[in-house]
Automatic annotation (TrEMBL):
<protein>
    <recommendedName>
        <fullName>Exo-alpha-sialidase</fullName>
    </recommendedName>
</protein>
<keyword id="KW-0732">Signal</keyword>
<feature type="signal peptide">
    <location>
        <begin position="1"/>
        <end position="18"/>
    </location>
</feature>
<dbReference type="InterPro" id="IPR036278">
    <property type="entry name" value="Sialidase_sf"/>
</dbReference>
Length: 404
C-alpha cells in the first residue's frame, strides 16, 4: 500500500506519511520568468530520465519556441531549460501539444504544429518536426510531417517509442476516402536518422479537433484511442490495437456507448495506460453523463467496464492517466468558484491496479488558475506538471513527490 502514499503528499504539499519523503514541498516553476508558457508535456530520455517540455512566447507574440528540462535524479530537481531553436514559429495550443521523442540511437525528435491559412481551410494547420542526431546538442531544420500536396491539414498528433527503437506518430489528416465530415487518422514510423516514413491511413471519420493518444505497452503492443464520428453525429471514444509492431491495426471498438450527439468539436481527447490488470482509459464526454470518466479492459480492448465518473464537477476535462508502479494516477482540470468568478484547479484520483479508487482530492486550490495537467514518473516518484496563470501569463509548474 505504501506505493499509493505519493498522491497524498502531492495534494497536501507538506504532509509526510510513513515510509514516504517529500522531495519538494513547494511548486517548482520550470519555465522562464516574464515569458508566457503553455503546453506542458512529459516524456523520457533514452536513459529513462523524465523530461518536461513546453512552449514559451513573448507577450506580444502569437508563435513561440519549444523548451525542455531534464530531471536530475541526484538533486531530484529539473535542470535548466533547453531551447529547441528550429521549433521557432510553433503555435501555442494546449490541445495540440508539441512533443519530444528520445530514441535509443541518440536521435531526438521534436514534433509541433504551425498555422498554414490554406485557402481550402482557413483553420488548417501543419505538423512539422525537427531532429537532433547528437542527443539534443544541435537540431536540423524543421520539415513537414506530410509532403503530399493533397495533405493541407494535419493536427492533434501523438508520439511513442516502439520496442524496436523506432519512433511512431499518429495524427489527424484531411486526406480521406469519403466526403463525410471528419478527418482520417494516419500512422508513420521513424527509423534511425531517416525521419518519419511509410505513412498510412488507419482510420476514417475522426473528430477533427480532439487530441489523439498513441501508447505502447511493456509487451510491445501499440494502442491508439481517439474521438470518432459515429452514425453521422455521435462523437464517442474508440480504441485500436496493433500486435505486430504497427503493420496492422484492429478495427475501431467504442470504449463506452456515451452516444454524445454534438455538431462541433469538444477538443479534449482520450488517454490510456496499462498495468498488470489490463488497459485503463479516461476521457471527457457530455453523453450519458457529463465530465471526465474512467473505464478498463481486461481482454485487450474487446470489452470494457461501465464508465465511472472522476469528479463531481460537471465540466471536469482534460483527464490524463498513468501507471505508477502498477497503481493508477489520474489527473484532470475542473472549474472552481473563486470570489465572484471561476478559476480552474487540478483534481486527482489514485486507483489500485484493478481500478478500485484508493484516494482522491485536489492538487491545487481555488486561488490560482491551473489547467492542462500531465503526468510523468521516475521510479516511485510521481511528477505532475500543469499550466498556471499568474499576472496574466502562463507558467509551467511541476510538483514532485517520492514514495520510498
Amino acid at each position: 500500500m505504501k506505493k499509493l502514499f505519493f498522491i497524498v503528499l502531492i495534494a497536501l504539499g507538506f504532509f509526510a506519511c510513513r515510509n514516504t519523503t517529500v522531495t519538494d514541498n513547494k511548486s517548482l516553476i520550470v519555465s522562464h520568468v516574464n515569458k508566457d508558457a503553455s503546453c506542458p508535456y512529459f516524456t523520457k530520455t533514452a536513459q529513462g530520465l523524465p523530461v518536461v517540455s513546453w512552449i514559451e512566447t513573448d507577450s506580444a507574440a502569437e508563435t513561440g519556441m519549444m523548451y525542455y528540462a531534464v530531471f536530475d535524479s541526484g538533486s531530484l530537481n529539473f535542470n535548466a531549460p533547453i531551447a529547441i531553436p528550429t521549433s521557432a514559429g510553433v503555435v501555442p495550443h494546449d490541445e495540440n501539444l508539441p512533443k519530444i521523442l528520445f530514441k535509443p540511437d541518440n536521435v531526438v525528435i521534436a514534433v509541433f504544429g504551425v498555422e498554414t491559412n490554406d485557402v481550402r481551410n482557413k483553420y488548417a494547420g501543419k505538423v512539422l518536426y525537427t531532429q537532433s542526431t547528437d542527443g539534443g546538442k544541435t537540431w536540423q531544420e524543421a520539415i513537414p510531417l506530410v509532403n503530399d500536396t493533397a495533405g493541407y491539414d494535419q493536427r492533434y498528433f501523438d508520439v511513442a517509442l516502439l520496442h524496436n527503437g523506432d519512433g511512431a506518430v499518429v495524427w489527424l489528416d484531411n486526406r480521406k476516402t469519403t466526403s463525410d465530415e471528419g478527418s482520417s487518422l494516419y500512422y508513420a514510423q521513424a527509423r534511425g536518422e531517416e525521419g518519419f516514413r511509410n505513412e498510412r491511413r488507419i482510420a476514417t471519420r475522426i473528430c477533427q479537433c480532439c487530441r489523439t493518444r498513441l501508447y505502447v505497452t511493456p509487451q510491445g503492443d501499440i494502442h491508439t484511442v481517439y474521438r470518432a464520428i459515429l452514425n453521422d453525429s455521435i462523437r464517442d471514444m474508440v480504441h485500436q490495437l496493433s500486435t505486430d509492431g504497427g503493420n496492422v491495426f484492429s478495427d475501431p471498438v467504442r470504449i463506452s456507448a456515451d452516444n454524445w450527439v454534438v455538431r462541433g468539436c469538444p477538443h479534449t481527447g482520450p488517454t490510456l495506460t496499462s498495468n498488470s490488470e489490463g488497459l485503463h482509459f479516461a476521457w471527457f464526454t457530455m453523453g450519458n453523463g457529463q465530465g471526465a470518466f474512467y473505464c478498463r479492459s481486461t481482454d485487450q480492448g474487446k470489452t470494457y467496464t461501465k464508465k465511472q465518473s472522476l469528479s463531481d464537477a460537471p465540466m471536469a476535462k482534460h483527464p490524463q492517466i498513468a501507471s505508477i508502479q502498477d497503481n493508477l494516477l489520474l489527473v484532470w482540470d475542473e472549474p472552481v468558484a473563486y470570489k465572484q468568478s471561476f478559476n480552474s484547479r487540478i483534481g486527482f484520483q489514485v486507483r489500485k491496479p484493478d481500478g478500485t479508487i484508493f484516494n482522491k482530492g485536489v492538487l491545487t486550490d481555488s486561488t490560482t488558475y491551473s489547467s492542462y495537467p500531465v503526468i510523468g514518473s521516475h521510479g516511485s516518484t510521481a511528477l505532475v506538471a500543469y499550466k498556471q496563470i499568474k499576472d496574466g501569463k502562463g507558467e509551467i509548474v511541476v510538483k514532485t513527490v517520492k514514495a520510498d
